[in-house]
Design goal:
Number of helices: 4
Helix content: 25-40%
CATH class: Alpha Beta
Distance between the termini: 15 Å
Largest sheet: 5 strands, mixed
Radius of gyration: 14 Å
CATH topology: Nuclear Transport Factor 2, Chain: A
Number of strands: 5
Strand content: 35-45%
Length: about 140
């Protein structure tokens, strides 16, 4: 399995945990050692693991938790830090596409999420779904 395949796998684990509202998988995915960063759309930077997991619990346990669709864009390596960019959007708001960066570092031989940031994108869901842009990975 290539590094790109591994990162793609763990990125998919993240989105599956989101879809399934699976806090156990989300907790297991996030890194346990070192620096962490999570910035939800319109939110502030969260750097404490407990606070990050509480933010995800709040989202996943909400009656308004969105059903998120995503499409991988590209993988960028910064030494040990692997950044996967994606486009994501809620099924209920296909015109509100976010550009996301998910960061992963190996901890004890397994890639763990150490960063998640999501913000507005100029790409529309129609463009993403119809592949009017070419992913670069």
């Amino acid at each position: 399995m290539t590094i790109a395949d591994e990162i793609g796998f763990y990125n998919d684990v993240f989105y599956q945990a989101f879809l399934d509202r699976d806090m156990e998988s989300m907790t297991e995915l996030w890194g346990k050692d070192g620096a962490l960063l999570c910035i939800h759309p319109g939110g502030v930077a969260i750097t404490d693991r407990v606070d990050i997991l509480e933010s995800w619990a709040h989202i996943l346990e909400s009656d308004n938790c969105p059903q998120i669709l995503h499409k991988t864009d590209q993988l960028v390596s910064f030494g040990d830090l692997m950044l996967m960019t994606c486009f994501e959007w809620a099924e209920s708001q296909p015109d509100n596409v976010l550009l996301v960066t998910n960061g992963f570092i190996k901890q004890s031989g397994i890639y763990k999420m150490v960063m998640h940031q999501a913000g507005p994108s100029a790409i529309s869901a129609l463009d993403v779904e119809e592949e009017l842009f070419e992913p670069r990975h």
